[in-house]
Structures are given as C-alpha cells and as structure tokens.
Amino acid sequence: MEGRRPALRFLLVSPTSPLWRARAAGRPRGARSHRFSMLTSLYVAASMPPGTRTRLVDEDVEPVDFDFPADLVGLSLLTYNAPRAYEIADEFRRRGRTVVMGGYHPTFLPDEAAAHADAVCVGEAEGTLSALARDFEAGRLQPRYVAGPVDLGGLPVPDRSSCAARPTSPPTRCRRPAAARTRAASARSAPSPAGASGRVPWTR
Question: How many Cα atoms are found within 13 Å in the side-chain-facing hemisphere of 25?
Fold first, then answer.
C-alpha cells in the first residue's frame, strides 16, 4: 500500500566467547558444549512491535554478519560475554547502525554499556522494547529505558520458529531428546528492594 512505512528490520545478537564461537553457519564448536537456551532472545523478539522483521543470531552456531541490512541492532548480554558484545556493538556503530543493549550486565552497569550503545535497556525487556522501537522509528531514541517488574500473565508468546532448524541445543544422550531440547519459563525471580529483580551481580 502506498505510503506504508517499511517494516523495522531488527537484528538481535547473542554473543559468546572465542572458545565457543562458530566459524561458519550451522557448525558449532564442540558437539557436546553447553549453550544457553535462546528462550530469552525469543521473548525479546516477541516484545517488539507487530510487523517487526527480527533476525536472531546466536554466535554459538553462526557468525555475525556485519553487512546485514538492519535498521536496529540489539545485544542481550551477561557479564561473561560483555567484552564480545562491546566489540560487536562498536563495529556495527562504526558502520552507521543504531545499537541497543539489554540484559543482566547492562542492568547492573548501564553507564559502562552506554559507552558502546545508542540506548540501554535496564530491567525487563518486555517493559521497554515497544516504547524503544516507537521512539527509534520516530527519530527520538532515548539513551536509557528503565522497566520495573512486568506482569508475567501478559507476556508475549515467543515464536519458536525463529530458531527452527538451528542447532541451538547440543546433542544429548537423553532417551527423549525432544524433551531435552524444549525450554519453558515457569517463573522469574521476585523483585528485590533495589529493584534488580532479585539478581546478584557477577563480580569482575
């Protein structure tokens, strides 16, 4: 339809350490290496506004394509992969892409993360991403978005097809491998007085 705004192209990257980084798509290092579930990234993707074209990249199973034509690049990070996340963010920004960060590490150290991102999400992604995406498309992206506890009953449903046919789970000796590969979130930690959802920051 004439005048319709093109869909937002969102690249969501899950960085990892050099020990486990895939050299080529679909060729993870170490068949029995532990890899975190992509469930968190799926919830992030589901929290974006309807119509967003999201591409998930897990460095455990495929390299980052810095030439991908993303409008917005997101990185979700813990402390162990923060250095790699900053490398990725810096390279995308050098190429003129807008980068946003979220996760445990940016929540506890938002000023540090802000040195490598155009915007930082503090707290639960579901409470900030819709506003962030709207602001980005309107040209008024804010440097920080802070969310309190979210209503778990109203969480978006993750689209697991985003990870279909990707080896995001290592092989298992379990007699029921399908069950071993299926992830589900049954609860989240209770909010602490400090507003950090009861999480304890990792020391450096």
Answer: 6
